[in-house]
Specification:
With 479 residues, the chain is α+β, with helices and mostly antiparallel strands. It has three domains: 2-111, Uridine Diphospho-n-acetylenolpyruvylglucosamine Reductase, domain 2 (2-Layer Sandwich); 116-228 and 452-463, Uridine Diphospho-n-acetylenolpyruvylglucosamine Reductase, domain 3 (2-Layer Sandwich); 231-450, Vanillyl-alcohol Oxidase, Chain A, domain 3 (3-Layer(aba) Sandwich), CATH 3.40.462. The protein has helices at residues 2-16, 22-26, 44-47, 69-81, 133-142, 157-161, 170-173, 201-210, 245-253, 290-301, 315-323, 345-361, 377-380, 410-426, 446-450, 455-465, and strands at 35-38, 60-65, 86-89, 105-109, 116-119, 124-128, 145-146, 180-186, 192-196, 216-223, 225-226, 232-240, 263-272, 277-286, 309-314, 332-340, 368-373, 396-404. The strands form four sheets. It has a seven-stranded antiparallel sheet with strand order 15-12-14-13-17-18-16. A five-stranded antiparallel sheet has the order 5-6-10-8-9. The chain is globular and about 70 Å long.
């Protein structure tokens, strides 16, 4: 922990140093098309990458938007030589507390690295480091192909991948990182490096679970698959009265031991500020024909929901539905999470009660609690030792997505979330908490995020590849 403290103090001391002349430092060594702007310049907002959340956001003294890999190489070398802290970003979806400690740094905007190439013959997809999940949807659909993705179209694909990459196709294809074949990246020396199972395999192992700690990925190649059910998905939403909540939780619990690979269950708790009612909803997603999905839908219908909405949509349309509100900017997204192995109805009832009280006493709060229950067959088919990702036994991901705009709510939101997180940890089915990195709040011990069994090798590789601690501000590996 002393080394981690040293990193924070080092960043703070750099932030107070005299501001460098960014134009003078970088311009002679980058392409003419590369844009550079300091915070005080009018075009700064156009050069810097946008930020999704205002909660504990990093601050930047300058931004640079490179065009070519050679530009990034020069930027890393010059920044390291001049002790300038930097952070490479796309849409700013890294949401944990550690990003708020990055102050007065240089933003490297990866927006120009937005190429998408589909090779349907060899079932490969190659994307630039600045591509979002939404940008791969149409090219893949045109080729009749698919890949597991996160649920929001605005999230950077590579950034989500290297932390795990969970989503609704997980039961069929596994984590997004399980489809990763290779990456090209700029390392701490400013060198271009390829990592795959056969080239720098130890680095490739580390990237698949802790990749932000090792460099800036400029391109990544993935395995893709033929579309499931011709690209069509069934989505059904069932709102329940609060009085019937127990039956909803027990239904989800019935799939703790096994859930069919094409099936997804997402129970959630929200609040309708117009009607002033708590919304308890069970969403069912099925990657297959209606005839195969119907038995699962009938199970939910038998619980007497208030209503039901069942439709068949394309995979693109499903992601658009999930992205509603999730991609909005300007809010404080104060996220907490915990992985669970079993659903405990008593814990769910307690969470419902606490959230109901919070909704009623905090009228500007727009957060939610959702449990994402995906199949694990494909994920468990990958040996644990193959990647640095540590939590393949998680059955479901509990996400406290706290959304609000008033910073005065921070303390109350933290109290609520920590209370709920503690309850879920106690009944999760795991001896120790297991935290999905991409949802982490930032206050969790490293062993809960990276796994105690993975940390020694990760720390050794970090020391080899990034001894100056240039990368990994989101969740630095402390060694």
């Amino acid at each position: 922990m002393l080394n981690r403290l040293f990193q924070v103090l080092a960043l703070a001391s750099l932030a107070t140093a005299a501001d460098p002349n960014y134009e003078q430092l970088f311009r002679p060594f980058v392409s003419p098309e590369t844009e550079i702007a300091t915070f005080s310049e009018a075009d700064f907002a156009e050069v810097a990458s946008p930020r999704w959340s205002t909660w504990h956001a990093p601050t930047f003294q300058a931004a640079i938007k490179p065009v070519y890999e050679a530009d990034i190489q020069s930027i890393v070398r010059i920044a390291a030589r001049n002790h300038i802290p930097f952070l490479a970003t796309l849409n700013g979806h890294g949401g944990n507390d550690n990003y708020g400690r990055v102050q007065n740094a240089l933003n490297i905007n990866l927006g120009h690295f937005n190429s998408v190439t589909v090779d349907p013959v060899h079932n490969k997809l190659t994307v630039g480091g600045g591509v979002t999940f939404g940008e791969i949807a149409e090219p893949l659909a045109k080729a009749g192909k698919e890949i597991q993705t996160g649920n929001a179209v605005c999230v950077g694909m590579v950034g989500a991948t290297i932390g795990g990459g969970i989503g609704t196709l997980q039961g069929i294809h596994g984590l997004v990182l399980d489809s990763l074949l290779s990456v090209t990246m700029v390392d701490a020396k400013g060198d271009m490096v390829i990592a795959s199972k056969t080239v720098n395999p130890d680095l490739f192992w580390a990237i698949r679970g802790a990749g932000a700690n090792f460099g800036i990925i400029t391109s990544a190649t993935y395995q893709i698959h033929d579309q499931t059910n011709d690209g069509n998905v069934i989505i059904a939403n069932y709102p329940f009265p609060v009085s019937a909540s127990r039956s909803a939780w027990e239904f989800v619990q019935s799939y703790d031991e096994n859930i069919p690979a094409p099936l997804v269950l997402i129970p959630s708790i929200r609040y309708n500020h117009t009607t002033e009612e708590v919304i308890l909803q069970v969403s069912v997603i099925y990657y297959g024909p209606m005839a195969d999905a119907q038995p699962y839908l009938d199970q939910v219908e038998a619980l007497n929901p208030i209503s039901s909405t069942v439709e068949t949509v394309t995979q693109q349309e499903l992601k658009a539905i999930f992205s509603e509100g999730a991609c909005d900017r300007g809010n404080r997204h104060n996220v907490y999470t915990v992985g669970i192995k079993k659903t405990d109805p008593d814990t769910m009832e307690e969470a419902l009660q606490e959230m109901t009280e919070f909704f009623e006493t905090h009228p500007t709060y727009n957060g939610s609690l959702a449990i994402q229950r995906y199949g694990s067959q494909a994920m468990l088919a990958v040996p644990d030792e193959e990647t640095s990702y540590p939590w393949r036994e998680i059955n479901a991901y509990v996400l406290f997505d706290n959304i609000y705009t008033d910073p005065a709510l921070d303390a109350d939101v933290d109290d609520l979330s920590r209370s709920l997180r503690t309850k879920f940890e106690a009944t999760s089915g795991f001896k120790d908490p297991q935290i999905y990195l991409n949802y982490a709040h930032g206050d969790e011990p490293l062993n809960q995020v990276y796994g105690a069994s993975k940390l020694p090798k990760l720390r050794a590789l970090k020391k080899l590849w990034d001894p100056q601690h240039l990368f990994g501000a989101g969740y630095p590996i402390d060694y």
